[in-house]
């Protein structure tokens, strides 16, 4: 993991725009920031996915994940965005539900978007996704957090436990995008999954006063029953009456 540059833990990472951030991450200053957490069961390939996205390389073996934060810049619709990707420790399932540590909950709260990974070779990792999605939404009450569901290890068809079609169905039921990938064999699908997520966040973050909004404020408001006109006519009628009365 030391191969990756610009790596800090979430607690250590300096605020964007600060002098420390510029030192740790030159080029990020002034950019819009997208924060992504990658979550899922242990061994599904979260670290491999993140490293593949950041370096285009697949590195077979990693130390068990302690939760690292990585940084990179991406071009989304002509704009360069700064993105932070938080790799997280694998989630265990206990009898009484998900075993989410406080560290993991902090990462999820921190994130603007989440990548939920399962492995097609591990049915339990797939079963966890529904509960995990519910948990994520509970940690972001009142907002629909962009989520992409990723079915990894598509190259291991001979030991498949989950039909990718099930992943697609689950994702559409949850209202998420879905990608079936092989981190070990294909970079493009990995890139697309992150790219789509960044795009979704970027659209959500669009500041007020964007062309859409400005245009709508220029459109003349439809006139409600014309009060000015009504008042004018009322005054006219009144003065006509007054005239009639005085002439009598
Ligand atoms: N064949 C194959 N192996 C993969 C793929 N992605 C990851 N692996 C392997 O799966 C194992 C687990 O990968 P990790 O990236 O460490 O998984 P993780 O989800 O980060 O695991 P934890 O740190 O325990 O949570 C490693 O041996 C990887 O090389 C894939 O697409 N195909």
Automatic annotation (TrEMBL):
Species for this entry: Microcebus murinus (Gray mouse lemur)
NCBIfam families given in the database record: small_GTP
Protein name: small monomeric GTPase
Protein family per UniProt: Belongs to the small GTPase superfamily. Ras family.
Entry-linked InterPro entries: P-loop_NTPase, Ras-related_GTPase, Small_GTP-bd, Small_GTPase
Keywords, comma-separated and alphabetical: GTP-binding, Hydrolase, Nucleotide-binding
PROSITE patterns reported in the protein's UniProt record: RAB, RAS
Record GO terms (molecular function): G protein activity; GTP binding; transforming growth factor beta receptor binding
CDD domains the UniProt entry points to: RERG_RasL11_like (cd04146)
Matches recorded under PANTHER family: RAS-LIKE FAMILY MEMBER 11
An example Gene Ontology biological process: negative regulation of transforming growth factor beta receptor signaling pathway
């Amino acid at each position: 993991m030391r191969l990756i540059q610009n790596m800090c833990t979430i607690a250590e990472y300096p605020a964007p725009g600060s002098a420390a951030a510029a030192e740790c991450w030159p080029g990020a200053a002034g950019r819009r920031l997208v924060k992504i957490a990658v979550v899922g069961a242990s061994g599904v390939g979260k670290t491999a996915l993140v490293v593949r996205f950041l370096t285009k390389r697949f590195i077979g073996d990693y130390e068990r994940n302690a939760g690292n934060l990585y940084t990179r810049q991406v071009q989304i619709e002509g704009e360069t965005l700064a993105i932070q990707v938080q790799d997280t420790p694998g989630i265990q399932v206990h009898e009484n539900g998900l075993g989410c540590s406080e560290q993991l909950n902090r990462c999820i709260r921190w994130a603007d978007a989440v990548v939920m990974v399962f492995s097609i070779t591990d049915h339990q990792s797939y079963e966890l996704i529904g509960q995990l999605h519910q948990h994520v939404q509970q940690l972001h009450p009142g907002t629909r957090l962009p989520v992409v569901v990723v079915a990894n290890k598509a190259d291991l068809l001979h030991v498949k436990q989950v039909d990718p079609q099930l992943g697609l169905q689950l994702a559409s039921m949850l209202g998420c995008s879905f990608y079936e990938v092989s981190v070990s064999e294909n970079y493009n699908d990995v890139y697309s999954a992150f790219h789509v997520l960044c795009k979704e966040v970027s659209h959500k973050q669009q500041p007020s006063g964007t062309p859409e909004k400005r245009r709508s404020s220029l459109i003349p408001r439809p006139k409600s029953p014309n009060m000015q006109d009504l008042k004018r006519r009322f005054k006219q009628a009144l003065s006509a009456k007054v005239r009639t009365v005085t002439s009598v």
